[in-house]
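Session log. Operator J.P. requested a structure for one protein chain; no other inputs attached. Running the standard single-chain path with token output.
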Amino acid sequence: MKNRINPRWFIVLVMFLFMLLHQTDMLMINSMLSPIMDEFGITEREMGFVMSGSLLVAAVLYPLWGFLYDRFSRAKLLGIASFVWGSTTWLSAIAPTYPAFMSARAASGIDNSSYPGLYSLIADYFIPTMRSKIYGILQLAQPLGYLLGMILALTLGGVIGWRNLFFATGALGILLAFVIFFGVKEAPRGKSEPEMEGLENVGIFRFDKKFALGLFRKRGLLLLFAQGFVGVFPWNVITTWFLYYLETERNYTETERLLTMAPAILILAGGYFLGGVLGDAMFKRTPRGRVIICLIGVLSGAVFLWLTMLVPAENKLLFFVLLCLTALVIPFSSPNVVSTVYDVTVPEVRSTALAVQYLIENAGAATAPALAGVIAASYSMHTSILVICTVAWVLCTILLVGTVFLIPKDIQTLRQVMRGRAQSLGGGAAQGGTAA
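Structure written below.
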């Protein structure tokens, strides 16, 4: 009987559910800032430090997760990460004081650095020219999780309380831990590379220090790392504070916030997939293709956000239309950055490479919510969002322009390495990395 689901699509489904529910749990707090702040008697300043704490913990742990994923079974480690997610969410639910709550939310950052292994595992099931589309599908979970968390918070938060919502999402994390640990199959590293097509034995490659250190000699990759530092500022500021901004400075009711943000978030979700599709299509035409799509997303996102934020508060229709246009283009970079990192790195250090990318991103993003809170306390949330997002996207544009010119050489270097391995493996020996 061959009517069972294709293993790689089963894995995509499970990983999508993991990301969807994890993002729901992680971002749901953004829709419950007011009741949490009221319960603990804190201001935007203290709440900003709560939000930044988990990002900082995740940033610190990315290198460790990256190494572990490149050395051991990524599927098993993802199961463990899901269990940690559920457990730390329960700790947040029972925290009696602000310091305890801040500590529990910081601990939730442990599992937030688990995505490099997820993307690396998926890369070994899909060829390079399909990866941005698949990552775009998976990254639909980020805005959909934000939307689901917002709906849960706005509809059930006032009925059952924010603590019970955390109990529910934590339970889902623990349940998924068992599904992933026992149901997801590991793939040989490098299996889907075009040079390995037709080879029965692709070797077993694990973390190699030489290749890991070589990441920092790839000039195009270094620029991509650098843009990651500022590139996630807008996402973290918007997801953390935008609902609060609508409530406090544009005087939107709960219903208006939901009716405004829900369609915008659905469009944002579509932007991840559209960005992935465009990235794959452009990559087939030129090795610069994916970075060009990133650049288009950043430039158009900056323009549309400026126009959106300048709309008077009473013109809610125009604000909504421009917000939706902004939402469509700002996720273009996300699936293409992941694919580009993998386009220039050997399979056995891909989790490490993406962990470095995310480490640098989180080092910047960890300051974003707190910085936004500090600026908002002195000026306004409108000024805070506009200034932080604009400055971040201007810097991203400069760095991505440089990446466009440098990335083809890094891609060519990887393809040469993989061709050499394929020739050696075809003769019965493995090169580069630790083979068995």
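Operator note: The CA atoms of residues 37 and 43 lie 6 Å apart.
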